[in-house]
Design a protein that fits this description.
Blueprint lengths: L1 E9 L7 E7 L4 E6 L5 E5 L13 E2 L15 E5 L3 H13 L4 E2 L5 H8 L5 E5 L2 E3 L5 E4 L2 E4 L8 E8 L5 E10 L4 E8 L4 E4 L1
Length: about 200
């Protein structure tokens, strides 16, 4: 398996896929397309009846459903076919006064929360060369990792005045691959540029 770091996760409106991009320990970039998981939300078992569900939303039947509320109420997991339906199903339930759980958590975050992924991963699977990334994986094996990458970092700070005008801009960053550290302050309000 390869160590990697997820830089960004996203899904397209109405599509049932999750996309992740990042950098591997070897320096190559990667893209992941995850098609096996779908957005979920949960409601109390006491609130559930089949007429509540929008088209395409299904109750997940599982012997190992161990999701409960803090007061011990059993939760019913509902799987949605895409992110648009997930958001709409959550809205419909809330409009009917039914409390939801994880309905407000975007799919990209649900996926990482359920796997305890904070950024670093161990990645295993078949990949092909990509056009915008070095490697593309479809449905690889992913698990949380304690790998800590050397990240290229750039931080931009913009200070504004009460009038909304820009008072100052500063940049700071580092690139461990090129041994570059950047610290630059641009004070636009006074037309002064300072390097340090």
């Amino acid at each position: 398996s390869d160590h990697g770091f997820i830089v960004h996760s996203f899904s397209h409106q109405g599509k049932p896929y999750l996309y992740m991009i990042g950098r591997l320990e070897c320096g190559e970039s990667f893209g992941i397309i995850e098609t096996r998981d779908l957005p979920m939300l949960y409601i109390r078992q006491s609130d559930y009846y089949p007429g509540l569900l929008l088209k395409g939303v299904v109750q997940v039947q599982s012997k190992k459903n161990n999701f409960t509320t803090l007061d011990g109420s059993i939760l019913v997991p509902l799987r949605c076919p895409n992110t648009t339906t997930h958001r709409r199903q959550n809205e419909v339930l809330l409009e009917q006064g039914i409390r939801t759980y994880a309905g407000d958590i975007p799919f990209k975050q649900q996926y990482r929360i359920m796997r305890d992924i904070h950024g670093s991963i161990d990645l295993k699977g078949i990949f092909k060369a990509g056009e915008k990334v070095d490697r593309i994986y479809v449905n690889p094996e992913i698990r949380a990792s304690d790998y800590f990458p050397d990240l290229v970092i750039l931080s931009i700070d913009i200070e504004t005045g009460l009038d909304g005008g820009i008072r100052a801009i500063s940049l700071t960053g580092r690139n461990p691959y090129r041994d570059i550290n950047l610290n630059k302050v641009l004070l636009l309000a006074d037309s002064v540029q300072q390097d340090f």
